[in-house]
Amino acid sequence: MDQISDYKKELVDAIAERLDSVFTNLEESGREPRNLGDIAILADRVVAGIPRTSPLNLELGPFYTTASLTKWLGVTRQYVHELVRQRRILSLTTADRHKVYPSFQFGGKGAVLPHMPELVTIFEKQLEPATQAMWLVTPNQDLSGETPAKWLRHGRPSKAVIASAQKYVSKIDGDDPVVVVTA
């Protein structure tokens, strides 16, 4: 319980620090704090940005639900479903048929991990979404032991991750990886 209390205090302190900056900017610009909008709605958006727990958390989580993701990003459910349809984000379906979205694929401000569409396209015919997610969070020898998600998040060369994904899929297909040599 102390770990939860300590973590909660650190989180609240970090949020308060960032809010101080927001209010300083408001004061400097001569704007009223109420211009930010309804307090309850703002609080809901802040809390929506915190991923939820799930039995899969140990391996793939935490996760956003559709409701929490729409609040955090400030978009509609339809927009989130369109992102999934366009293969721009990865969604998993729980046993009770709810959609969840692994948090590792989003940056701090909601930006999607670079090259997710290419990776999802490479994997979609051979791998279930949970297996795709697992590959993205598993340390990878092709990436110096780093997970593909972390590799991409840190802006390292995407070609290495794409090549590793193609190599992985070719092993599943039973094909030898194709080596392309350029001059």
Rg over CA atoms, rounded to whole Å, is 20 Å
- What composes the largest sheet? 3 strands, antiparallel
SS class:
mainly alpha
Q: What percent of residues are in strands?
A: under 5%
**Termini distance?**
60 Å
Annotation, overall tally of beta strands = 3
**Mean pLDDT across residues:** 82
Q: Which word captures the global form?
A: elongated
Give the fraction of residues assigned to helices.
40-55%
- Low-pLDDT segments: 176-183
How many DSSP H or I helices? 8
Order of helices and strands: HHEHHEEHHHH
Q: For the largest sheet, list the strands in their spatial order.
A: 1-3-2
Core attributes:
disordered C terminus; 183 residues; 3-stranded antiparallel beta sheet; mainly alpha
Provide the fold topology.
Elements: H1 2-29, H2 39-48, E1 63-65, H3 66-73, H4 77-85, E2 92-93, E3 99-102, H5 116-123, H6 129-136, H7 148-153, H8 158-173
Antiparallel strand pairs: 1-3, 2-3
Question: What does the model show?
Answer:
The chain is mainly alpha-helical and 183 residues long. Helix content is 51%, strand content 5%. Strands 1-3-2 form a three-stranded antiparallel beta sheet. Helix 2 (39-48) crosses helix 3 (66-73) and helix 5 runs parallel beside helix 8. Residues 176-183 have low confidence and may be disordered.
In a few lines, what is going on in this structure?
The protein has eight helices and three strands; from the N terminus they run ααβααββαααα.
